[in-house]
Design a protein that fits this description.
Radius of gyration: 27 Å
CATH topology of the largest domain: Globin-like
Order of helices and strands: HHHHHHHHHH
Strand content: under 5%
CATH superfamily of the largest domain: Globins
Distance between the termini: 74 Å
CATH class of the largest domain: Mainly Alpha
CATH architecture of the largest domain: Orthogonal Bundle
Helix content: over 70%
Shape: elongated
């Protein structure tokens, strides 16, 4: 009987206090766990405006690239497609591929590049330009690696001598 009184007078209020503190603190603990979930690549890159800025620089580099300009099929394609339209489509593609809300509605990589006869040398020239644009805007190394993995996944659908299939972005 004396134990029950001790429990009711001492331990019950203490238990209520501890449970109350846990109830108050628990939303903060849950929020902390949620914050540990990594943001999408799209978010880490800064969203559509940051992506569009890098794409703008990248496309300008591609348009001035002598290796790419030596390919007459690429030159003919550039004469048919507006620079602004190309930048828009590439921006939408990058946004979608990195987990953003924008949906790319253009043609697949295979469809849009099959007539260009892009070689490994031209692919490497494009990759070098892409790296320069990413470096110019100080895109962190981790995000650069993720972006290059996405780009590399399309190589089989773009480069004529490459084997395998890439994603259909």
């Amino acid at each position: 009987m004396q134990m029950q009184r001790l429990f009711v007078r001492t331990l019950c209020p203490l238990l209520v206090l501890v449970l109350g503190m846990l109830w108050i603190v628990s939303p903060g603990i849950a929020q902390e766990k949620e914050e540990k979930v990594e943001k999408s690549l799209y978010e880490r890159l800064g969203g559509v405006y940051a992506i569009a800025t890098v794409v703008d620089d990248f496309i300008e580099r591609l348009l001035a690239n002598d290796v790419l300009n030596a390919n007459s099929a690429i030159k003919e394609s550039r004469d048919r497609v507006s620079k602004a339209g190309l930048k828009f489509q590439v921006t939408a593609l990058v946004c979608m591929a990195t987990g953003g809300p924008i949906q790319y509605t253009g043609r697949s990589m295979k469809e849009s590049h099959k007539h260009l006869n892009i070689t490994e040398k031209e692919w490497q020239a494009m990759a070098a330009d892409f790296k320069m644009s990413l470096d110019k805007f100080k895109v962190p190394e981790k995000e650069q690696k993720e972006l290059f993995a996405i780009v590399e996944s399309t190589k089989g659908d773009i480069v004529v001598s490459s084997k395998g299939k890439g994603k259909k972005y």
